[in-house]
User: Fold these one by one.
Assistant:
Number 1:
Amino acid sequence: MSNGESLRIRMIAWHKASENEMSGRIRRILQKWLPYADRQFEDWSWRPACGHFFGGAYWYGLETAYTASVYALLAKHSNYEEKLTGIPREEVKRKAIAAIRYLGFTHDTGPEDCVRAEGRNHFCSLTKWGGRGQKFFPASQTGVTVASFGLSAWLLWEDLDEETRYLVANVLTSYADRWCEEDPRNGAYHDTQTEENAWTAGGIAAALALFPNHPQHEMWKKGFEAWSLNAITTPIDRIAEPRSINTVTFHPDFTTENHGFAHPGYICAGINLRGIHAVFSLMGDEPIAETVLYNNESLYNKTIKVWAQFDGLAVPVQGQDWWYNRQHERQFTHAFMNVIHKDRDASLLERRALAIIEGIQNSNEQGCLLEENGEQCIISGYQTAKDMEHTSAKDLVTSCLLHLFGGAGTDVSDSDEMADRLSGVYVYPYGCSVIHRTRDSFSSFSWRNRVMGLTFPAKGCWSITPLPASYTGTVNFEVDSPRSLLFNERFVLQTERENIRAYEDGFGAIASFMRGDGELRQDVAFVSLSDQKTVYIERIQVLKSCKIAEMNTGMIGIRNERYSAMPELAQGRKTLYFPDQTVSYEGFYGREPNRMTDFDPTKWVQVDEEIGYVLFGSQGIRYVNQHEYPKWKGVEDILILNRRSEETFNCPSTLAPFVVVSLPNRTKEETNAIANQTHLFTCEKDGVVLLECEGQLVFTNFNTSGLTVQTKRESNLKLNRFPLYEGNNRIEENTYFWSGKLDAFTSGFLSSEWTLEMIDARQTGSCTLEISALPNRLYLTNRREKIASIVLHHAKGYRRMIELAPDSTEILDF
């Protein structure tokens, strides 16, 4: 076979391409981005007709490859509107080809004297790309570059000269040859290999798609199938398919870890990165390999969809170390599941993600996809938000082509039906998180990697951010030398023990962990109730003498973005309401130092009419209106609900419990009303905390043994209604008592099925009633010498009137 024959290209099935609602929306976003990208283009004089984007020396050549794919798509798109962009189609095509040539010359297979431009990333500046001589991770990661590079070249193949075509062929075939006979990598903890296996498959897929007659094609295919099949694998898959699956990249509950925690971006990587093969296949009118579809639906249904908030983003239940606005990446995840797997929920979530993408872009005068002045938003010494523009654009290119050649997808789910269906409790024993969804709230607790809780109102991450120290907080000790992350000061990596109790409509989580070098033990409980509320309970024990510089618990991240086209989500101001004052804070990045305000302990605080917090045992409140960030993720403030400044502990002791009742989707008036109806009980047993709020009794037993407890709370003299809870209830002279057995080291809640009303409120101060509540049965005893006239109200709306004779007992079955 001649060299020309082996490099004969597969023709693109343009007759299959058809503009539709979804491809059109995405194309218009890319067109609006084009003038911004065009200002990032520079000619490169080392070889004729070459140029690069965004400095030309970012990691792996991504900046130029990703942007070139935008140019190539628009250059060939029949509906490209050059009047709107101001850039003639021929100019778009010229720059796309210049970028392809630049990447071809500066690749390892290009002339030795051709290196990339000089830039601020010293790792890449004046070097070649391609991974020659490098270890697996950086060398294989060029697969994402190769995939976009190959896509751009394929779209423009008819316009490329012979020299450029050979440059392209050399890049694609060298990658496929290098990796097609390597074994996929194994790993799920700390650094999942799903990403590596998927991007390697994606790189090989480019050569596989373009050059069907190449003598190595069958070898490439075999390698591609191995890498793509092994991208999303669990232990049971390895057992079921031992000949073809030799990796485990996901836990059995379809969670996985990267950067040391369950990271939504990497959980989706297997779908996204190997998904480029589906785009290539549709463009070439070829079948999509089954290995690219393997486990997609299980992963999507068990994690991604369950974690998705209203805008399609997967909630980072163990925190986030990248920027928050990753809707572009998730948009492709949902697009793939919509078009390829015909998932109606994905169809809805994709459209929601796209609406946010449009809203952010329409808020930026330059047409950029993330931040108006992205170069000022520092992620690292050589990475800014501007460097993430081309990454976001690349996801839109693949989504656009997916729809252009694959159609708009399936019908959308009914929004209300989907919300109801996804509501419930989900436990991830291997990912070490529990999630409770309702129609317009989301709560979670994580007990490994990042020990933290989250309570989100309807607007999700646009209201509250997933700080890795959410609720559990930070502790800074006065010590002679810095301590590592293992000392759990900035956030908590793991617990010493934990217990998770799942209910049908909520959960109770309890955990214990050390702070510092054994100085403090922090016991926490996080209870998610059936009515969206959550309760965080904290007990800190001082185990040995120490001095703290600062201890901040009950920490809440507050999103404070400004996007002019989305004032309902990001108006650029947050208002805090207290019982006796109101304070507002402008949200913006840079320009001013942080503004910190300290407040005295208070009964409640409410944020922006979106979420309220009822407090018990707070030592002080601080609001940090952040403008300075060590690493940009978005504009987020920090609300500290329990702040201790410098303090010395000279001997072992136990600090008073601190309790937060979080109220998503409640106004300040509702927060105030609920605060007045929320009561802590007193208990003779140490380590026991009980709280009552709106017909629910939250309990926590931090002790390592089960206890039978008796607790009480004083009643309002005018109160004549008493919720009844499973266990023993007693009403005596304006005091309500509850007693029952609490299991060892446990937390949870009891819901009141019945409420007892005294018909004559004057009886309350002189009555003694005992009610033993069991499932489907009540024992009512009147211990006084007068008739007790009561009404029992059931939670479902019906009631029953009872006259209890003096010193008598009545048994009621239901």
Number 2:
Amino acid sequence: MNRSTRKSFNRKSKTTLFNASVLSQAVLAALLSSPIIASAQEQEAKGGLEVIEVTARKTSESLQEVPLAVTSIGGQELAEKGISVLTEVQAFSPNTTLQTSRGTNSTLTAFIRGVGQQDPLWGYEPGVGIYIDDVYMARPQGAVLDLLDVDRIEVLRGPQGTLYGKNTIGGAIKYVTKEMSGEARATAQATIGSYSQRDIKLTGQIPLVEDKLYVGFGFADLTRDGFGEYLISALPNQDLENYNKDLWAGRIDVEYSPTDDLFIRVGYDKTKDTSNAKGGYRLLPSLLTQAPVPDSVFDSYTSLPTFNEVELEGFSVMARYDYSENLELKYIGASREGYSPTNIDFDNTPLDIFDVPAEYKDENTSHELQANFDNGRYSLVSGVYLYDGESCGNFDAILGFLGRVAFATPGLTREVTGCNNSESWAVYAQSSFNLSDQLSMTVGARYTDEEKTAFVNNGLVFANVYPSSGWVPGYVRPDGQLVPTVLGSDSDGDGVLDAPKSESWSRFTPRIGLEYQVNDDLMLFASYSQGFKSGTFNPRATINEDGVNPEIVDSFELGMKSDWNDSLRANVTLFSFDHKDRQYVGFGPGNTATDLQQVLRNVAESSAWGIESEFTYVATDNLSIDLALGYIDTDVEAGNTIPPVIGLSNTPEMTINLSANYFLETDFGSFVINGGVYRRDDYLLFETSDLLEQDAYNMVNVSVAWESMSGDWFASLHAKNLTDEEYLVGGYDFVTRGENGELLPGLGGDLTLIGYYGDPRTIHLTVGYRF
């Protein structure tokens, strides 16, 4: 929604505007890579197509040999384009949505081909898997990591249920870091930019034993003033910046190669983000306060504290052993935990109409043992995977104004606490083998067994309740405010609470494909694959609900990987899928959007077909042009929900990215100049409402990167969103419609229609030195 559209919004008939929904989520994963231009010896030769290595099938292969729809963005390209935030990657991958949605700077909302998960509340599972060096990031909260010498980012589109398992029904995103080698080195860089951006990054490696033992390190401190401010805060002594950034991240790795056949990496990372909670923009004036609609989409009001925190740390180990020339054994283990207290003011007024202070906690461990075989004619990727995770949280839905007016009480709070714990194991194998000199087949399968245990405490308190004492100045939390447990309720009336509910699911997910190598530069492929998203329990349950079954996606692909005359690369994929048993949280029969009684059920089904095309044209030795185009046609097959599903969220019909890259060598060093236009068609923010819908928009980005002749000094200048587009990436929709379509107050008694927006125009300059 651009500025002119937003201003005319208030003059339009309300019958053309928004509707009600009650999903909640938070926002953003930042990628802290070291933006450098590759030195001369590291650059690919100009005048030809680059050979791109990927690990989409858990072994190193050329991108042109992988029969999957994969986008790979290398570390050099990330640096040249100034990509420092994961959400920017969406522009380069067709039919991909990676948004900074709402509430915080810490949580990623990811959709690929219309499949994902909008609500990051504990208990809900993502639809797009996030991996860092094959370590699964189970929760979207706190996906903000400093990655030491990022080698590339891979976006795998379509279900990846065989090799990557559950919760990859839309696809997977992989961060791949570089292994260390060579002499001691370090890179220091500083960035200044719009809104007082001040970033410092330091990365490097130290060889302790030549060619055997290395220590690598990375540290980043990222700060920026807010794009807007809280115009009014009901609490004293608050930081009033809105959409600011205050984050540091550190990482240390130890790599050891005792023999030529054995490689071991041990890593530890920690991130702490103390950026303010993000306030949303009121698209409608409040009926209950005098605060007008702000002039800027980045300005807001609040009755909550503005503090927010995300703390995340993890430990990982990887051991790789080349047992023979053809057989590789690998172990990957990890342990991670995160904690995030946050304040989300749903109504964004200085009055406690609908406030949600919350805490999220999670911890998980995983172990994976792989055996990978390849003799040139036959290959096998196989493994065993174990996962144990606990995801917990609590939130207070404060409807204080309603409590005082309707019930003559000090306030009104629906408090929800709970945990959703998962233990799962899986075995998988995928084999590729030749049927003839040109025809090969890929066959794979995975068997997953998972058990979940959950409890929910869901109570109504006639007072304003916060998660802990001191949450707001002077607040002391009393004990014993909750009414009885729900999923662990006293169902038989014997006065003893039931045990938490448990349920188990198992799933066999196959993959089969054919590949035909027409010649050295052209491959055709066709495949069928299946993926599933875990069964789960409703984390907001208000009745003693059973768990819901896994979601299933069946997908077909027909594709081409081709290089023409070493100057044109054309990779095209046609796809279709059916998405069954979709888990949908809605209102039970007889309830309305003004209630908090929500039921989780398998009640929706959708389908889609589309095309994804990625072209690279090397026009001259110095100039290359890239085009990424995605089209998707979606259909809701069944939506037995209240309210009904009317479309897929965060899924524009078409995405287009056209960019050019020019290399120039001078006596002052080498320059890389690139620019591009990215277009997204209109899309819904919520599946059940057309009230929050983003119009189609175009994004223009331009960058210039320089490296000295010696390769020691480097600098880059990046201008993003040059036309200063205003575009929605999240929101809250708590209004109802009257008999004539007029908008009426929803939960909390106000017209709560809130938008969160992507970054405005920014310019930043980075200068660095390699030691």
Number 3:
Amino acid sequence: MSVTEAPARLSLPVEGMTCAGCAGRVERALAAVPGVTAASVNLATRRALVEGEALDPAALRAAVAAAGYASPEAVTEVAVEGMHCAGCTGRVERALAALPGVHATSVNLATRRATLRHDPGAPDRPTIEEAIRKAGYAPMADAPPPAADVHAAAAPHVHHAAPPEAGEEAGLRRDTILAMALAAPLFLVEMSGHLFPALHHAVGGATWRWIALALATAALFGPGLRFHRIGWRALFRGAPEMNSLVALGTAAAWAYSAVVTVAPGLVPTDGRHVYFEAAAVIVALVLLGRWLEARSRGRASAAIRHLLDLQPPTARVERARGEEEIPAASLRLGDVFLLRPGERVPTDGTVLDGDSHLDESMVTGESIPVRKAAGDAVVGGTVNGAGALRVRATAVGSATVLARIVRLVEEAQGGKLPIQALADRVTRWFVPAVMAVAALTFLGWLWLGPNLPHALVAAVAVLIIACPCAMGLATPISVMVGTGRGAELGVLFRRGAALQSLQDVSVVALDKTGTLTEGRPALTDLVPAPGFTAEEVLPLVASAEARSEHPIAAAIRDAAARRGLPVPAVTDFATIPGGGVRATVTGHRVEVGTDRFLTSLGVDVAPLSAEAARLADAGRTPILAAVNGRLAAVLAVADPLKPTSAPALAALRQLGVGAAMVTGDNRRTAQAVAAPLGISEVVAEVRPEEKVDTLRRLRAGGRRVAFVGDGINDAPALAAADIGIAVGTGTDIAIESAEVVLMAGDLRGVATAVALSRATLRNIRQNLAWAFGYNVVLIPVAMAGLLSPVLAAAAMALSSVFVVGNALRLRGFRAPLMGTGAAP
């Protein structure tokens, strides 16, 4: 069952229920979902049965999650062989969507893959593959899942293996050459006969027709057999597609010509023309187009292959008996490996010894090498500079950064954009409509025209000129190239649909700490309240902040450590999101946080409010501390701006995108940071849960808002924004909540993402305009009898090549601040 359809009943697994009360809560939650008319939950089977007229599985699962339970969903990806147009993808999608337990399906023509979201274990892989076979296509067993272990791709026995597309390309190349060799004599003799009438009479006899019959038959049922094998089967199944058009057109031309040659008495004298050259040349030209298309698609998917090739095949590790070279796929957590100058890092790790600079451009898009010394993290696939390093492996296989990048790019490339919906609706009926038009053309010319051959030629031209392939490739091929280029520039689109959404963003809301600033604040001031000293307060505050992961907490702990002050143990520690922390330190109750937080606890902050205001006006972040309910001190930290923040915001303004700061910091500090950046819209003193409401206010007037953040407290805002953009140097939870990830932690990536989104959508519109315009213009020309089947075949073959070639222009996209700024 597809999300876009309207099923009457839906069964969902539910985990976490322990009693009838749980079942009742899930039932009530499901019943409240729009479109649900009835919901019942079976505690024994752990399943919910929902009835309604327009059920959305995603909304139902969200309702189950909101009730405190889980409705697990499995994702299966299968490579599908034999798809050639959008009609093919539609048939595979419908076949898979009809399987019990399937919630959503997506089939991508560019990547030749089907993705299913379904109940765990239902359907299983054999059932999915059988459904694909029944639809007339072949599942491929060698499709790596999205989370495939990248080390498997890097292992020596497969590292240099040809990708699946290589086999398809080689087969098309072989068949194209053979078809051209068979069609060339037919084409040359026919064309020469028109130029030299004497030659035409010389080769127009029965002997040449028998030779032409042999050559055309070899072409149609040799290299052209692929069209007939797939096309006729689809036609008889009542689901004709691109191959059906080619098979029907070439078979009609060949069969008529064969009858004229074998039994000329069956055909009137004025209709004894043969079209063997048309049938053979059509096969050759269509194969040529598919070969060129396959080559281009191979270039379009080069981004993932390039990422996989970054993993070196071997690694030199320390063993008890000395250094040993092993396959990189054999590395395990804790292994210590050695890096010589110029070598690639085999997996993620932490430097134990040595000093060097690493080229991390494959991760960040930045070409400036980064210094690495003991304690620093290194990423698998990056290139070591002139130094030598000794590194301990901290992540292997699918847990590495490189594997995550590959997984994100594959998922984005396999997704569908909303703009593709129109093409999908049209192509579902396109081929049957073309066949009907061809039949009407034949009957019309048979009634009005000069003779049977003229009617036949016009009908064959209509069949051959139509090209649903271009429609099916228009969107996914651009998404494939665009997301791949983004990965090369350090911008990862976790979902392909984010490409379309990002183009319309009018405001980018930014967190301050770690996003606009370095995220490494340092303690600059500590002003004690009367009755307290700095030496007394700082250890208490540092202890209270000992368990906090906030950058400000780290700055306070570092200051205490530099001064050599003891940090006592704490008890009863608690974090108040957007407020601060509280804990018990050596019997003292200590609260640290914003003035609003302390005021809510009944602490009088007035004695230090003027000092806090002065520090905030200076661009520092004031934090208040209370001990045993009394105001103890105001502390201030300063977090320097990232050097890339100002140029990044300038680039966004050039793109017509505004900026707003949304921060939990106090207003004075926020304004002091925003002013030099040219940010006029500042929302300060915002708790994490309030950031979501702030985003809703920013949407006023129909504005689309993107939110950029990097911390755990940013996760709700990242998920609630129209587009969530996570800084890749941030936490995993923030990255998982976002739709776009900036691997370099560089805000210039936001401008790059927006510009790439617009360039990709512009490219898609060009492809769709060509795909639809081509058919709208040339099908009537063919109906009018003004187009020969050979020219129709050439135009049809080139239409898909044009779409793929246009998409490949995105490979030349340049980031606005890293090149010419010109986008295709």
